[in-house]
């Protein structure tokens, strides 16, 4: 079905655009939520007017939320959690926990739809986008670490260190092999020269 968006919809489009969507998505979500209307000939005539008003509204929102974006941009949140030996969490870090932490630390209220992410189920560092408006999407860093350990000592860091040591050891072995090959070829060259003389 075709719908005319009357509000910006993340990952779908901006207000005033006509989009083809699944019938169920249009009828059960977009239209009841007041985000779109069916794309009838009458609605098509309103598209430009809706687009102009939405652009004005978006500019005002961007100005209002610019300070919020500045506050959130580049911030780091740490979550000490219980995890198994493999780094898998006993539970998960959800978008709701991130919203509560942002509210507690920065006094910024967010809606669930603004923090679009899968629940975090593994130790590590993650980048989470916060959708304030279509144009303002600051990113925060979320560090999930084991309880009782400092956030910097992550399993990822420990895993990469042995690989680096192995790479150095392999490089040393390669150098030794190359030197041996040079010595062997020099000896072969000397042996081939001697019988001719």
Please supply descriptive tags for the structure shown above.
197 residues; alpha+beta; Ribosomal Protein L9, domain 1; Ribosomal Protein L9, domain 2; three-stranded antiparallel beta sheet; three-stranded mixed beta sheet; disordered C terminus
Write a brief caption for the model.
It is built from 4 helices and 8 strands. The protein is elongated and about 60 Å long. With 197 residues, the protein is of the alpha+beta class.
What is the topology?
Blueprint: E1 2-5, E2 18-20, H1 23-30, E3 36-38, H2 41-72, E4 76-81, E5 88-93, H3 95-106, E6 120-122, E7 124-129, E8 139-146, H4 155-196
Can you walk through the features of this model?
The chain has 197 residues and is of the alpha+beta class. The protein contains four helices and eight strands; from the N terminus they run E-E-H-E-H-E-E-H-E-E-E-H. Strands 2-1-3 form a three-stranded antiparallel sheet, sandwiched between helices. A three-stranded mixed sheet has the order 4-8-7, with helices on one face. A two-stranded antiparallel ribbon has the order 5-6.
């Amino acid at each position: 079905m075709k719908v005319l968006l009357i509000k910006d919809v993340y990952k779908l489009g901006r207000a005033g655009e006509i989009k083809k969507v699944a019938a169920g998505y249009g009828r059960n979500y977009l239209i009841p939520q007041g985000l779109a209307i069916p794309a009838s000939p009458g609605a098509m005539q309103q598209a430009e007017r809706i687009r102009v008003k939405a652009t004005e509204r978006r500019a005002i929102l961007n100005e209002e939320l610019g300070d919020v974006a500045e506050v959130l941009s580049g911030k780091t949140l740490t979550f000490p959690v219980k995890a198994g030996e493999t780094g898998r969490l006993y539970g998960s870090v959800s978008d709701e926990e991130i919203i509560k932490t942002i509210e507690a630390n920065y006094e910024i209220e967010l809606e669930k739809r603004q923090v679009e992410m899968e629940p975090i189920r593994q130790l590590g560092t993650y980048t989470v986008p916060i959708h304030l408006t279509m144009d303002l999407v600051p990113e925060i860093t979320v560090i999930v670490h084991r309880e009782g350990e400092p956030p910097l000592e992550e399993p990822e860091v420990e895993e990469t260190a042995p690989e680096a040591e192995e790479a150095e050891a392999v490089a040393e072995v390669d150098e030794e092999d190359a030197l041996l090959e040079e010595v062997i070829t020099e000896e072969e060259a000397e042996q081939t020269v001697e019988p001719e003389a």
